[in-house]
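User: I'm curious whether this sequence folds into something compact or stays loose and floppy. Could you predict its structure so I can see for myself?
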Amino acid sequence: MKPQGFDIWRGIALAILGFFVLFVAYPLVQVLYKSILAPDTTTLTLTGDYFVKFFSRKYYWSTLVNSFYVTVASTLLASLIGLPMAYLLRSYKVPGSKYLNILIVISYLSPPFIGAYAWIQLFGRSGFLTSFLSETFGLQMPSIYGFTGIVLVFSLQSFPLIYMYVSGALKNLDSSLNEAAESLGLNAFQRVTKIILPLVMPSLLAGALLVFMRVFSDFGTPMLIGEGYRTFPVLIYTQFMGEVSTDDHFAAALCVIIIAITLLLFFMQRYVASKYAYSMTALKPMEQVKATGSRKIFTYLFVYGIALLAILPQLTVIYTSFLETSGGTVYTGAFSLANYENTLLAKDNDSILNTYIFGLCAISIVVVFGVLVAYLTARKKSFITETLDTMTMFPYIIPGSVLGIAFLYAFNTPPFLLSGTALIIVLALAIRRMPYTIRSSTAIISQISPSVEEAAISLGSTEFQSFRKVTVPMMLPGVMAGAIMSWITLISELSSSIILYTSATSTLTVAIYAEVIRSNFGNAAAYSTILTLTSIISLLVFFKLTKNKDISV
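Assistant: Here's the prediction. I'll summarize afterward.
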């Protein structure tokens, strides 16, 4: 007999809330505590010296300025690419548009640092195209390293996010507005700038803020291609994991600063979403028309050209993975499977297997928690579920490297000794990607009428049985589709894994990064190809499950 007043859903909500308190709130509190705790004292002494140290020395605060330069430039360029890309593919019939969309999404789901590595292979000092243009035409290419290279990689890797947001908005755009503007004498350019652009602006701003947050917190790309152009995430990594000297307390202070900045960006995004959000009902959706003349030439050149640039890093790593190398660094020009023999058949190399095992364990946690949290926040509104809803968004805000550092601060001593284990990586991966599945599951459950559950209860089922036998099966197709997208981003995670891994718990992204740092480019290409093919297969499964031809937000 259950105790009087016992509510199973309240118990589940409290248990999940406790999980997030332990694995989200507690690590963040440890970071804050570490950032203001004076070291080497016999008594508890709090200080703000680490923050003073950062803001008083140009060597440190200039990295924050550099990060803003890179992020603003990358976000603007990504918007300038993603917006016309979405408009052209929605407005005109482009042969192979379905496959172009898949290529665009694949370029987004691939880790940015792979793009950095690939562009170095192409336009680095000894890159394929650099050598070819120099030897054939005597052309000296500008340096791919530093600010230019970082912005190039981030822009081409982030514009698909703008594309997906704007494409989703254009899908709901009523073309009668465009036709009315045309009847009033507006030309095509005026219709785009005065009608379409203002209507999609909320989606454009939302996507741009997400790009901003993503670029601002990434450290892999600047580490590989920055070459002296130091950004803030790189400073955090070197202060915590540097080979020369480290300072845990200063690294913690840096983590607090970046958390504060990303929190501000998150609230800006929420403000934009609430202030400028409106609903559009496409009574007469946009129809693709056949482009003619110069418009056709421009559309084809722009769409195919950008898609080629976006997917070029993946094509590069796949091609170079079959090239024979001398010492792992210099390509001989001959084709060989040696790179795959060195990776797939290497002894004591569990990176590939770890990636799939950790990913499957993490995605299982993500799906279970995602469904439960979505149901609780949609159907069981209370102070507890509202608190839970807010707390589940924190991993979305926190950069991966900061989460990894926070986990080591929190779980490096008994009674929560998890550092060095596979469990800490699985938990970090699950928590990092859980907000995406929670949001998609919440959207799905909002489309299911509560009357379906009420009907099951009226037929004798308990509330929990109704949830398990009626609601979950109805949610499952959409949840699984969302889980596949989370899986793709999860196996591509580097920021937290590079902080938490050991030799026994290395993953594919860590292995790729390590091989690039060691200049073992052949092995890095083989690993990257395996990761890319896994993402492509997963994406094709997503399209099969959802029966969609594209992905839009």
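Summary: Confidence is low (pLDDT under 50) at residues 1-5. The CA atoms of residues 71 and 212 lie 6 Å apart.
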